[in-house]
Each structure stands twice: as structure tokens, then as C-alpha cells.
Amino acid sequence: MAWARKLLRVDLTKGTCTSEPLNMDWAQRYLGQRGLATKYLTEEIDPKVDPLSPDNKLIMTTGPLTGTCASTAGRYSVVTKGALTGAIACSNSGGFFGNEMKNAGWDMIIFEGKSAKPVYLFVQDDKAELLDAGEHWGTSVWDTEENIKKKHQDPMIRVASIGVSGEKGVKFACVVNDMHRAAGRSGVGTVMGSKNLKAVAIRGTLGVKVKDIGAFMTATANGKAILAENAVTGQGLPTYGTQVLMNVINEVGALPTRNHRDVQFEGAGDISAEKMHEKRASDGKSNLITNGACFGCTIACGRISQIERTHYTVVDRPQYQKASGGLEYEAAWALGAATGVDDIDALTFANFICNEQGYDPITFGATVGAAMELFETGAITTKETGGIELKFGNTKALTELAEQTGRGEGFGAEIGLGSKRLCEKYGHPEMSMSVKGQEFPAYDSRGIQGMGLAYATSNRGACHLRGYTVASEILGIPEKTDPLATEGKAGLVKAFQDATAAFDSAGLCIFTSFAWTLEDVAPQLDSACEGEWSVEKLLEVGERIWNLERQFNLAAGFTGKDDNLPARLLKDAAKSGPAEGKVNGLGEMLPEYYQLRGWTTEGVPSNQTVERLGL
Amino acid sequence: MNTGKRLMQKSLHIDPGKCTGCLQCEMACSLDNEGAFNPAKSRIKVFDFHAEGRFVPYTCTQCAEAWCMKACPVDAISVDTLTGAKVVSDALCVGCKVCTIACPFGTINYNQTTGKVLKCDLCGGDPECAKACPTSAITFIDADWTGLERMRDWASKTDSGTRAEA
Amino acid sequence: MARYVIVGAGPAGVIAAETLRQQDADGEIVLLGGEPEPPYSRMAIPYYLTGGIEESGTHLRKAQDHYAKLGIEVRQAAVSKVDTGANSLVLADGSALPYDQLLLATGASPVRPPVPGLDLPGVHHCWTLEDARQIADLADPGASVVLMGAGFIGCIILESLLARDVKLTVVEMEDRMLPRMMDQTGGAMIKRWCEDKGTSVLTSTKVTEIKAADGGGLQVVLDSGEQVPAALVVVATGVKSNAELAQDGDIKVDQGIVVDNYLRTSVPNVYAAGDVAQAPDHSTGGWSVLAIQPTAADHGRVAALNMAGVETTYKGNLAMNVLDTAGLVSVSFGRWDGGDGCETAESVDAENFRYMRLVFDGDRVVGALCLGHTDHVGVLRGLIQGDVRLGDWKARLQADPCRIMEAYLGSTLS
After folding, report:
1. Which sequence spans correspond to the domains of chain B?
2. Cα distance between residue A88 and residue A459, in whole Å
């Protein structure tokens, strides 16, 4: 019930697909998706493995609620050792692929080894086979998806694939499903590419059942009602998408701008949700066409956008004149504020390319921002950039590099290293705005203090989705805390981290947590899944998962010293806005955090903690 | 001969402009009909016009012509007099699929697993898809109000007998 | 009070009788059937043969008192003559049956190929319920069966024969299976599908003679000289309209009884419907006989409306077939074979027995073939018979012909 109780093991070296029963003892302890797949990964690979070697494994995984009518329950994650970070990577995606996998009767697909030639996995319910991907290798995500559906003569097939960037080893390649939904961060697509695995195509028709359908329908209906009545999930997100944050975060002085040199962007309004809604003078249309939902989602924050037909990026290029996945807040920030570019259609175009060629717009935009700083300080010149005047605010440089990175060509291949490797290469490691090799998302931790700790301790490198204290510090969810204070943030970060791990492992979207607490999730899980699922159990599962990920990273070679922020955030004060004069107070928060976690002062889970959590 | 007007029947009214493509309707439909969340077996389907940013839920309009019912060689499809829905009897359906090519709207489909055909039956008068839709893109309302011109031939027209075309 | 007489109790006749009753509460309706069964459906015979349904499952209407309740008089009677001058039928027993409005829905009969030995015991058509009973008797598990003809009816029977676990040999004189419903690509896939299931399929092969074998059973002689032993030979080499009744009188007959857009024959109060009617054809603009269930249903309905005085124009015959050949579903519509000035779009996945072919005339779909598809195939009828102008969608269908449902919605709901 809820779980399909089955996993598919695909040995790419041997070319075999075998079915295995899911370890249901582990499922009771790690729930599913992020937690359960991390358990499998840690049991099956050496944490020290080269992420791009055949010995790394890549797991596509659903949660127990995936494929049910619980709101947002269509998620899946890709779990592996990240190519960008070398840390545990778990990238979560919406769209419709997760449901398809569950409906085909699989909780999880574990890919191991490496195929001798490009292949894709084709799954029709319990039938799975590896097929030659020769004709798809070298094609974009968009073409791969269309062509696979066409080849198998079934428009209802769902596809998750990598683009050319993932084939070419761009370190932050994504796995993209349903044209514009991505398991985006940490280079999970790069790992997929290293295995010569181009795509996974699934058609599932078996159905998903739950333990107690009566109780489940009541619990999910209650959950949906809460989402509908909540101002963020019921109005803000459907109307404005995550982009609702652009002006808000700019106003609180936490919008990292031009590689974190500033905390406010004068062009924020021009790249905001409001701008996407605005009717253009030229054609009377707006950038935003409509909002769209992922599978089962009653929030529907997704943006569907269309670029003005006369915009320089799309003239004579009809494939980009169509509607497709539009800007989310993090992408708009990275492509815009981080680079100083304020042309909404150029950002939309770059975002299209990120989707089309499958790479992470956050790391991409942030890396372009870092490269712009390298350029402006003279560390690189037009010789390195292939003639591109890589100055902050250069719109055409951004879109040109988006295309080059998508193809893994020219200076785009160097952008494809990510900011850490790029800045090291050119002698300025301090210019990489990253933690554990992964770039920050769109919140400056000088203006939102808790996020500094959340970034520093995030198990997959800098990330807003591992402990989104923005909710509390800015939006007052579940209660308002002072964004400029460090006090109490250790506890706040831990609580968010543990709860998030539980949400991520259930098959739900973390955006539900704007309105839901685990009190709302527990009855949905409890009525769907075998076993008893209380809030207490979910918190324990969340904490267990967090510690398991931590253990993986420690075994991979990370230490407490990696729980750190770039000097810029710790030493260079914010220049404007409410946080003017502030740096991040990580040092004030980290020891308390370790203590609350039951870790040693070096950041290692104590024996007592390990024992308490049964790790 | 009609002895008088029947009570106003209700019809599914679909407003694609409100649809977000979440597929809650497909899940509700399949749960009611198949006992599981199984969009592949849903009688209502949402088509995603990605390039236009449009989602279109689509199902049987219970058309007056009742192409499926008239083409059925074994009388396995009948009108539910309460709702006006054309309903498939699994006991009588032999799986010949003639209805699936007779219906010009493509809304009655063969299920290879069961060897029978599937179509919308309005859930006996309380359609699950409409109840599950979070944006009111699908509503179940008095037939007179279902104005989508192209999705024509709604149940109310059966009252007047037939239409002068075929 | 009008008297309506319908000759033929197949789908066209039954639907006509019911439609007449809807339109005319008081008229007298007589439905004449030639077989000693309640009105039944030939389409359902294969399912009876597989044991999936009882005989009663083939009946067109299930309630025993269905016709009585509607005031439709069902009689088993053979008709010897139509006297259009006297507005009267002459029945086999010599009695007269006058009418005000007459519908000829006499159906079709299997063609008897000129092959010696067709009268031998163990050789059967598969057309009537009585035929089916005989076949069911002989088609035991392991029995050698030869099926003559791999057309639509042959292939429908094929499935039920395989389901009975016989050792089957199919002999088709044309170069492929389903020559009138599938092109080479599709026909070859169906052949391979059948062969994979252990059926021997001989195309471009004729049966020259059927002989009684020494020691019982039959010997089927092929034009290759080969002889195939058989306990049962099923003959399914096509059907032709039962238009004899009309031929005596002044009713115009060609391949079938020729009717106009109102299903009216050349005699104003005589109509024809179903397998016997040669009706205007939507695809060609000419006239055609289409011996298929949906056409019979449409004819019966439209003819009855006109007979009752509700002037109704028939949209024209559209060839359409759906067939399940031992689990492989194939569908054909309209001008699937193309023709002058037509463009085509194809998608072939031979390995997985999936095929989609669309034929365009300008920006309209005019014909289609599909194999291995069951979802939304009816919309092909909507596209073709609705003369839907595809606009931009033509190019998209050319890129991926499986997007028929989206093309229909995109073209009609805009």
C-alpha cells in the first residue's frame, strides 16, 4: 500500500534489468524517496567513490504518497553522489514522471555501472528494457522527449532525460522531466551522463492504492482545504509563482546581486513576478501565459511563459517562440540579479535553454556572475571568454553563455565547471559564492541570518531547500523571527531541516510547508502507509535522514570545516537596505547547532546520537 | 411521444481556461471506477498543449447522437434515464470495440486488461472529477448553462428527440 | 396509421424499427427476420465461439419483451417478392404483406469461391449463429483447421479459433493479410503476429480443392501443390449484398441497392440500409457498399427518420473497421490507401507491433490506419467525417502522427 514494494535494479554495465522487493524495514525507518534512497545509496556505494566513475550509483525514487491524490504528491528525487559537490546529492522534481514511475509499479530505480554505449531505459509497467540511444545522444531534452514518445507511438509516455550539457560533463547538469521540470541541483544529470544513460521513459498503468482509502480521502481533503485557504499557497503562489519573492527579498536587503557584492538589485522590479504579468506595449501580451500544476498539485505555482516574438533571442527561432516553463524565483534571481541582467525575456530565454539542455540555472547564473567578477577584476579577459565582454549587466553575454553551456562549448565549457572550480582555476577561489562546491540560491545570508547556517550545514551544499528559514524569518511561517538576529536560529534551522527531510521523503512538494506542518502530513501518511505515522515518528525519521546524509559526507571526506561560508558573507558587510552593515554571524550559530544535533564540536554525530537514531 | 419535459438534466461543463493540468480529476475518476489512483484508466483526460500553455480536460459529452450506443452490436450501452449518461454494461460488453471507432470524439476506449470498453458514466449523477477539481475548471451544472459551442450535443437535446442531421 | 415493414432483423433493421417507434408512436411496425433466432449480431459471433458469451449474449436486444413493449412485431418469414406497384410484399408462404413505407435491410451473404469440395461435411462459412454452432462442434483443442481468407471476417474468426487452441493454417489469395483494411506494412505486422502465435499463414496462395481424406477428415489442396490436412475448413472469402429481392422490380441495383442521401431507393417509399445498401460515400463522392456494423447502425437510423417524415441527410459512408487479431488491435478509416494528391504521415515500430498512418488531402485527414492503438481512435472518425481543417496541426501530425487527439482538440476547440 502506497509503496509499490518493488525496486528496479538496472545494471548498465551488463545491460540487465531486475526486479527486487523493496526493503520494507528500511521503509519504516526512512519512509521513501530522499530518505530511503539515501539509505540504499549509503549501503551500496563507497562514499569516497569518484562521482563520475561507474562505481557511483544513481537512484530515481518516489515517495509512498507519490501517485496518490494527496496534493502535490507527484514528486520523485534523484539520489547519487553529486558531480558538482562530491557530497550526497538528492534533487527533487515535480512534473508527472514520478507518478508514472509509481503507476508502473516501481518505488525506485537503481542505476549502477556504466553502459558501453548510449542507452535509455524504457519501462512499461513491469516490463523494463535498455534500448539504444544512439539517435538521441547529442539531442536536447526537448527533442529527446518528443522523439521517444514518437518512436514508441505513445504521447502519454513520461520521460526524464539529460540534455547535451549532461553528456558533455557540465558539472551542474540536471535530469529534466516533462520538458521543464528538473531534478536540478548538484550535478545529478552529470552523473547520469557519465553512465551513458540518456533518458528514462515510463508508461505506468497499474494504479496506486493506499491502506485506508476512506481515512485517506478525508486526510487529503483536509490538507487541500488548508492549502486553498492559505494566503501563500492559495493565492500568492498560483498567481505569482515563487517569483512573488523577488520584490519582497529585495526590499529586505537579501537579494544577492552581482556575485554577492550587493544585497539589493536596482533591476529587481524588471525581473519580478509583477513584470511577468505586465502587458507589453508592443503586442499587448504578457510574458506569463498561465500557471500550471505538477501532478496532483492544488497550488499550481508553475509558470508557463512566452517570449516576445521580436526579442533578439527568438527571432527566426520558432522553437523558442512557443510557450514553455517560465521563470521561477531562484532562476530569475540567478540569471538576473546575480549577473546584473534585468531583461525579463532574456532571462526567460536563458531559462528555456537551461530546461532544453538540462542544467541548473542557479549554479549557471551564479557562475556567470562569478565569471563576470573575474572579468571585471581582470583575472580573465576576452581571450578566455572567446571574445565575450563579460561585464555585469551584459544581457547578450548571458544568453550567449547559456547556449554555449548547453552545448558544453567555448567558454560555456568553463562555466560548466561551476564557480568553485572556475574561480580556483583563475586564482580567485574567494570569488566563488558556494558551500561544499554548490552555489548559493537567492537569499543573502547577511540579510537573513538563519539561511547562513542552513547553507553552511546543508548536506548537499548551499541550498534553500534543505532548511528554508526564509519562511519564518521573512514570511512569518510558522512564526516570525527576526531575520537579522542569530539567536534561536540554530534550533530553527534544525527544525526546518528535519521536517523538510520528512516532507521530501513522503513524495510531497516542500511548498506545501508554507501551509502544512507535519501535523497535516502525518494523517495523510498514516492512512496511506503500513505502520503508524505520527508527527513524532516523522520528526525522528527526518532527523535520522539528516544524520545519515551527514555520515555519508563525513565518510566522503568532508569535515566540520566545510560547514562554512565564503569570506565575503562573513567579513564584507551588506552595503544597503535593512541589513546594511551586517555580516553573517555563522560563528554565533554553528556551535549551538552542533550541540542541538547531538554532534561533537567537530560536527560529527556522537555515539549517543547514532545510537538514539539507530544508524 | 414525449408526455412532457423531463426534469432538467445536468452536464459536465469544462472551462479549459481554469485548468492547471493537475490531474486530480483523472485520479478521482480512476479511483471511483478502478479502485486505484490510475490516471491511465481515467475516463476523463487532460491534454497538455505545452507549446500554447493550455490544458484541456476532455471526456464524453453524453451526446444526443449516442454514436457508441447505436453502434454497439450487443446492446451493452444504454441511457441512464436519471442522468442521461450513456452507460456501458460490463456484463454485456463483448469487447468488439466497434463503439471505439464509432464515437467521433474518441471518448470511449478499449481496456485491454479487462477486454471491455471504458467511458464516462457521470458517476451516476455526482461526477467525481467535478468534485475533485481544485479550480472549478470542471463543474456539473444545469445543462442549459453548458455553453461550450464545439462540445455540442448535450444531454438536454435528447429531449427534443433527434436532430436533423447524422 | 402508417404501416412500416422492415425486411431484415440485423442491426440496421432493428435500429430502424426502434427509431420509427420514437418518431411515430402509433404506426404499425413489422420486422421480418429470415433466421429462427431472435435478432442477433454477427459481430458477436466470435465471442460466442471463444466461449466468452452465451448465445443470448449475441442478441441485439437483451430483454425478451423488448420488441413487444415497443409494439414492434417481429416475424420469421422469407420474402419472395417486392411488388412496388402494389406497395406489398409477397411472402414465401404466398401471403401478401402490404406496406406504406418499406425498408430493405436484407444484409449480405458470404461469397462462395469456385472451389470444388465446399459442400463436404466439415466445411463451413462463419456467418450465422448456426454456422458458429457447427464450427464450435469441430474446433476442438489440437484439431487442424484451415481458414480460407484472411480478410476482416477471417481475422475475427481467427482469434476465436486460436482461443480454442486449434492448429491453424490461414490461406489468403492476396499478397497480405487484410488486403482491404491494411497496407503492406500493417498486413505484414499482423502476419508476423499470427505466426508468432503458432499460426501458419500462407499469403498469395489459393485453395484449389478440398477433398475428403482417407480415414476421415479433409485434405485442402493448395495451388502450390501442397496439401494441408484439416478437421475443419472455415470459408471467409468475403460477402456480397443480398439485393436479389430488389432486382426483380424497378428498384435500382448496382453492387447493392442504390440509395440517395436519404437512404431512399429509386422507388420513393422504399428504403435500403446496412450491408445491402449502396449509399453515397463520404470519402469518394461516389457510392459504396460497406458491410460494417457502424454503417448499418447509421443507415438504419437515418432511413427510419426519413421514412417517418423527419427529413434527415446522411453524411455518407465512411469505411471504418476495428479488429482484434488475437490481441493485436488494428483500425482503419476512410481512404487509408491514399490516392492522387494525398500526402501521408507514418510512424512504424514493427518490433513492437505499433503502426500509425495518416492520409491527408490538403489540410484534412481523409484516411488512417493504426495498429496496436486503442486510445481515442474514434477521433479519427471525427477528424475525417467532420472535415476538420487542421491548420497548424497538419505539420504537427506529420511530425508525430500519434497526436490525433490533440490535433482534434486543437483544431476544433480553439
Report:
1. 11-156
2. 7
Task: Residue C356: name the closest of A149, B110, B107, B49 by CA.
Answer: A149
* Closest chain B residue to C410, measured at CA: B49
Q: Superfamily assignment of C327-412 in CATH? A: FAD/NAD-linked reductase, C-terminal dimerisation domain (3.30.390.30)
Q: What is the pLDDT of residue C214?
A: 87
> Which among C41, C259, C388 is the top mutation candidate for probing chain B, defined by the most B β-carbons within 10 Å of its own β-carbon?
C41
Interface membership of C51 toward B (CB under 8 Å): no
Over residues A197-210, the pLDDT tens digits come to: 999 999 999 999 99
Answer whether residue A218 shows pLDDT above 90: yes
CB A73 within 8 A of CB A87: no
**A236 DSSP 8-state letter:** I
Per-residue pLDDT tens digits for A249-286: 999 999 999 999 999 999 999 999 999 999 999 899 99
Q: What percent of chain C has pLDDT over 90?
A: 82
One of 3.50.50.60, 3.40.50.300, 3.40.630.30, 2.40.50.140 is the CATH number of C3-109+240-307, namely 3.50.50.60
In order of A275, C321, C348, C357, the CA distances from C370 in angstroms are: 47, 10, 10, 6
Interface test with C, best of B19, B46, B70 (most C CBs within 10 A): B70
Q: In this structure, what is the dihedral angle of CA atoms A100, A106, A108, A109, given to the nearest 10 degrees?
A: -90
pLDDT in tens, C143-200: 999 999 999 888 988 888 888 899 999 999 999 999 999 999 999 999 999 999 999 9
Which residues of chain A make contact with B23, given a CB cutoff of 8 A? Answer: 96, 99, 295-296
Top CATH class of B11-156 equals alpha beta
pTM comes to 0.94
Every domain range in chain A assigned CATH 1.10.569.10: 241-251+257-432
Contacts of A146 in chain C (CB under 8 A): 400
**In what side-by-side order are the strands of the sheet with C3-7?**
C72-76, C28-33, C3-7, C101-104, C270-272
Chains touching A (at least 3 CB pairs under 8 A) are B, C
Q: Which fold has domain A6-203?
A: Aldehyde Ferredoxin Oxidoreductase;  A, domain 1 (3.60.9)
Q: pLDDT per residue over C291-322, tens digit each?
A: 999 999 999 999 999 999 999 999 999 999 99
What architecture does CATH give domain A241-251+257-432? Orthogonal Bundle (1.10)
Q: What pLDDT score was predicted for residue C413? A: 78
